[in-house]
Amino acid sequence: MPSRKGFLLLLLLAAMETLAGFAIIVGSSLLDALPPGYAVFWPLLGSAAAGLAFGLVVARIGPGDRWNRAIVAVGAVATGLGGAAAISHNLPSFLIAAFVLVLLFWRGIVITQEQVDHDDVLRRFGWGFGFLFFGIVWIVARGIVYQRPIWQMMALIGIGYTIVGMVALGTSRLEQEREPGAAAAAALAILFQLALLAGISLAVLQLFSLDVAGGIWHVTRPAFDRLGGALFQLELLIASPIQHFVDLIRPRGRRLANPALTQPANTQPTGKKPRGHRPLNDPLVVGSFVLFAVAALGGVLWLISRVIPRLPHRAPNRGYVERRRGLISLSALWQLLAGWIIGLFARSGEAAVRAVRQSRRRIFGDYPADPVRRVYAQLMRRAARAEAAPLTATTPLELATQLARRWPDHATDFARITEIYIQRRYAEATLAATQVAEIRERWHTVRPAMRPPRARPKGPADRGPLQESAGSATGASGQGWLARARAALSLPDPTEGAKTPGFGASVMLSVVSFAAPVILIIALLVVLALISGSFGAKHGLPEPGDVPLLLMQLQ
Amino acid sequence: MNHEFVALIAKLLVYILLLTIPILVIAYSERFQRRLAPGQYVTLFAIGTVVGVLLFVPAISIVAATGLLAIGAAWLSARFSLTGLSYHRTMLPSRLFPGDSAELKIRLDNNKFLPLASVTITDPIHFGLIRATHHLDDLIRFSGGVQLTENLGYGFTNRTAVRPFQSVERTYRLEAVRRGVYTLGPATVETSDPFGLFPRTATFGDTLDLIVYPRVYRPEEVGLPFLETMGEASSRRKLADDLTRIAGTREYQAGDPLNRMHWKATARTGSLQVRLFDPSTTTQLMIVLNLNTFQHVWQGVDLDRMEAAIDLAASMSLWALDRGFAVGIRSNGQVPGAELTPRVAASANPQQATLLLEHLARLSFSGRYSPEHVLADEARRVAAGGSIMFVTSIVTPAAISVLTSRQLAGRVSVVYCGRFAAPVVRGVPIYLATPKGSTDLAVS
Fold this sequence. Notes:
The complex is a heterodimer. By secondary structure, chain A is mostly helical. Among the domains of chain A are: 4-210, no CATH class; 359-446, no CATH class; 509-541. Helix content of chain A is 69%, strand content 1%. Chain A has helices at 4-27, 41-61, 65-87, 91-112, 118-142, 148-172, 180-207, 212-249, 259-262, 283-307, 330-363, 371-385, 396-406, 411-425, 433-446, 465-469, 481-489, 503-539, 546-554, and one strand at 320-326. In chain A, helix 1 (4-27) packs parallel to helix 5. Chain B is built from eleven helices and 20 strands. The N and C termini of chain B lie far apart (107 Å). At the A-B interface, helix 4, helix 5, helix 6, helix 7 and strand 1 of A face helix 1, helix 2, helix 3, strand 4 and strand 7 of B.
């Protein structure tokens, strides 16, 4: 007897043979003589499977070659005649049905007599396609190719044959014995491609006016209805004791029927508040209830799965110990997500921190308490930002000279500030209030002049982005708007000694970079909500409050 | 049975005869049992698609396009099947003595979204030595995975399937049986699309050497007093000490000269200590190994005798190195990659033992060089104070004439491990060695 893989492969080959033969039957006029019409495919498939099973059983327990042939012949006749009698209503259809059934039975027998490998499956795959195209050519020759049911059926046969053939090709390459993880990997690899193939092919067929989706829905709806009903009964089974328990502990909140059904039409409002309350109408309670039911159901299933005895797993000795592990773990994915979110907000965070620092220094300052030294520290800081003079290894008098050279209009102010500072700093003299007031006044005089220049230079390079993008990305200053935009938005690179953005830029940067991800996330949530809402409305899904109502009606 | 029915039957028979039967004959006769290549499928499906479009027959186009899509998807998956695939193998330890075991780990990583339904990794197993057997199990035993390759060699083969972003690691056990260098790789990785239409092959990784050293015997295991086989070399070993190279100290013994007292060590330990010095010269011992096992090369080689000679050479060289001799090896065999007869110069370096063992592990029978030629050459090259030990499984008349020559007088000793009785040669000490496990040992 063949292995599981071998048996699956034989079944797939039988299906391939049946599909190819069915294409010939559809292409010829034989189908017109068979009462079931297209449904005759299933008896044909059954006949091929019967031949397959017969061949396998007889080869295993048959008494001998001659007797085996006789047994197979009897089986073929029985299958052909029995099947033909079941699906035909007159003699011609009986004969034709018997012929095609016996033919498929014979093909099933033939499949079992050959050693099937990948090359053999590939060869059969090609020949099957030959039969398919032959059937189509026959249809063309008969001049009925433009009849929609005919070509749609041929297309469906072709798609089905391709999928079955590819599954057979993939199966023929599988090893007889595989490690626990290998079978899943192989199945995933095959199914991934076949799902893609089936999806695209059926979509194309749908495009060519065959309502595949509607047909599938129509065919599978009874099954889904039954499944939904069974699940609902299961849910009732779990929910009923809980409901009774709730009724017990809340005697006043007993179960209420649907007011629309129980309230008489002529009932007049009394103006009183209804006694008791209906907690099950609360979406929160209903949501909690559903969650609890799901958790309880999951717990019960888990317990059942735990207590079911298992056969000991006997791994064959292959001479090695195998270990499989994922290269991407769940924790790594979480870290990736967290890193992405942190990266989204990192720029805004740094900009916000910088803005806070600048504003803190501006408002409170980290300057000396002494008013004279405080003014001089502010002067030095402003001089540093304006790059007026190197502050290291520079005496106050040298600094005053350099500042006077930079801002000659305020040379006197600088000289006077420096003089007062030297008295306070180095002579440690106690200054009069007038001197303190003077140094403050002079500082307020020179401070506007020492304001650092704006980052954006005036001139042709200061044109707007749209104006400049019409030409090239490089402006007259040699730095394109793209580069300037990058420079304005990107954080300073300490290795290149870039300037830190100003207070306003920092605030704007933090607001923008905080707002962008937040807006993105909110937009995503809104889109999801819209999609789910429209989906629910389209398919008539019950609102959360309707669930207890349905429960009450059923009870 | 009316006329219409007969006409229908007749028409049916004509259909069957004219169309179905020839097709079945063509399809299932041996002459046409040939499979199409994927490229031919692509051509046929492309033609079918175009013909369907031109004839406004959607059925042809859909069926052909479905086949084209299936083959295209298969081609794409085969195209990227080797992307993100990496293969590693490690062996611990990679140096073994016969009877030792090692752990061989292979790891295959699939760093992409595409799963692989079938991956076959074949590491060819190379062993370039002349062997008495073609069975790998007689040389080295793998716990699994060894298969015969198409060129009748051996391959370490692993077949598996890998999911997206999955790593498969397998651990094998190896047992060293015989001396030699066994090289795994480079690996040939074969994969394809899930349906096997477009096979892809690539060579992965480097080679991995497993070195199995010769068997090392203790003197009592071979019935050979190693010290005696050294002859005068053992007595010449320490002629004078090098007073500039202090090797250590020891307790004073009566008779030690006072100029060797180590006063600082004496004060520190509270007992009399004397200095120990390294010898000023190290006695050289050159082991000349004869891999010939018969008088004439055309008589072939007795591999058991040859292995016994190599084992003896390894045992004696390690023993001598352990006792401070500078040991070298010269043989008339061959080492892959070397042009001339391989020679390891004598040295007392701590790494010399490893060097000699690896050299002996790689050594193979050559037959191109006569042992007499090698022996005479070494008599010329070894310094006057050095000794030569001739390890052989056969003593031929030509070898006797070289051994008794004036150049080798008093400097050579012979260790014999042959099957037959050793000849008695006047003036040349010949020692019999009987390695454990050898059959048909020499008698004398």
